[in-house]
Automatic annotation (TrEMBL):
Organism in which the protein naturally occurs: Penicillium cf. griseofulvum
Record-linked Gene3D superfamilies: Single-stranded right-handed beta-helix, Pectin lyase-like
Protein name: Pectin lyase fold/virulence factor
Top-level taxon: Eukaryota
InterPro entries: Beta_helix, PbH1, Pectin_lyas_fold, Pectin_lyase_fold/virulence
Amino acid sequence: MKLAQYLALLPLCLASSSYYFDGSATSNGDGTQSSPYNTLASIPNLSLSPGDNILLKRGTSFAGPLLLNKSGSAGSVITVSAYGDASQSKPIVSAGTTLNSVLIHGASFVTVQDLNITNPGDNKTPRRGVYVYAADAGRVQEITLQRLYIHDVRGWMPSTTTTGIATGKYANASGGIVIEAAGSKTPTYFDGLLIQDNEIRSVDRQGIYTWSNWCQREELAAFWNTLCLKPWAASSGLVIQQNRLYDIGGDGIVITGNNDAKVLTNTLVGFNRRSESYNAGLWTANSVGSVFRYNTVSGGKSTLDANSGAGMAYDVDHSTSGTLFEYNVSHDNEGGFFLFCPYDKPSRNFTIRYNLSVNDRARIFQVCDGGLVGGKIYKNTVHIGDGLSPYIVTETTAATLDVQLTNNIFKKEGSGAAKWELSDTKFTVNNNAFHGSINTYSKATNPLTEAPGLAAPGLRDPKAYLLLAGYPTLDSATSVPGDADVDFFNNPTSAHANRGFYSGAGTKVPTWISRFDDSGLSGWTATGTASIVADPSGGLGKSLSLPSGVSITKLISLTVPFRLNLRIWTPVGTGILPSVEIQGVSKSATVMFAAATPYRQGEWQILEIAFSDSASTATVDGESVTLKYATQSGNVTTAFVKINGGSTGLFVDEVFVTAA
């Protein structure tokens, strides 16, 4: 046979195979679609080849574990996924009495996607939803975990000072997704691990956690010398993005043993819920070059004393260098905003810039024991709400703190007073804006104490913290070497040298703002009974509840174009879904909520409608959504905004309108 003919036939010989599994089948078949397997125990015995598929039927359930220990190849991964009627729910994989629902053991070039994974347990043994584990395996490559729903994983808890604060973490950790490089003979590490677009809900202890026994290096803090034992072999190419984590018992997302990991556009709502120990939202330890960008963390709990460091949104921990946190949001975390825990080896060359903190409680910045070298904290915006009295900076160390705190905005509203616990003169505080009841820090230089001109302070929407025209925070920042090219909103930082996280031109004052914190509906007309209630997320302040069939309307007196922003919380339910309508003089625009992405039930989201006579657009949490835009049959005399609770009901908060 000629070589060309052989090469043409070769792909047919190497065609991938698909193996079908149906949890509702009464007997175990041969793995074809017409005679599927009915047990996951068949998977380890399959003669899998690169490009093969393991397909679980939608709408059915399986007792795990699902064990995958064979590798694909570059460009021909082995895929575990779902098949069947797309309207049916994802196939359920539970662990039964085993530790792992899904175990990827030493395999490379694999993808696991579109599964519903649970591992209830009793909180008395380690439990994991997905466990990616390799020991003495060398380089483990290209593993993707995506579109998974991982929930109710009840690993070993609580992790108190009595039961042991290490319970559920380090080696053999418990949680939703756990990545571990183990062994003692062959350096083992992961390369090109992608974790994206997963929902992780109600898991203990960790949300997404990475660990390596190959950790020893000169920069390692001493207390880890007994926790991980072998010479440094860092993982690389880790990307954790667009995941949504809720009700996490301990830490949200933890990066250890990695070079240049990226943690991007994740949402964490509620962490440190059951651990009763030291946990943070998103953090890194013993890693180099970690990047955290465009994440949102809220609802962190802290059951320990004010100096514990528990329940803080973000953390640059020990044995790290080159860590970057930029364009992140933190709000309503009991522990506070940012933690630094270097211990006996300094955390080096970290940058905290263009982030937003709203109503974080105990501490804005806290330093644990140990030194910091080459730290930059600049152009962040911090709002401290009524009744809160956090520390701006608190430190309890005799080590040197080489940190610049510059060009930030700190705004305090209402009762309470923000304070300082900072004695190290190497920690320089220069050219920051402080307004409201904030105790004076005697060593601060060039402070600005006039009103900073925040557009709508106290709201959780980042656009509430644009800077108004005419205020001294505009074009008054000092130069910081290595500044970012763009700000939080993608404005070029070269355009305006502003303090805080916004680098654009001065904006207009909102025409009106409705916070609903004063127990009133000022300016709104209700059809039915609307009520002011506690924030359903537990955040500071109150919210408006629109039960089934109830709506509110407010007249608009400004001309187009303008922008409407509000927070929405859609309860779980079906039927006539809520809506937001803008009726202009000649045009109307209506957003009908949908039971689909990007709408997510049972959490706060930000809806923005840009309204004009020529066109209107809408986004939810920055993602475009369908908007019904129409020309009226005749001009109306009164324009209005109408918010309708539909048949499911709706919570609404922080409504504001700004002329474009």
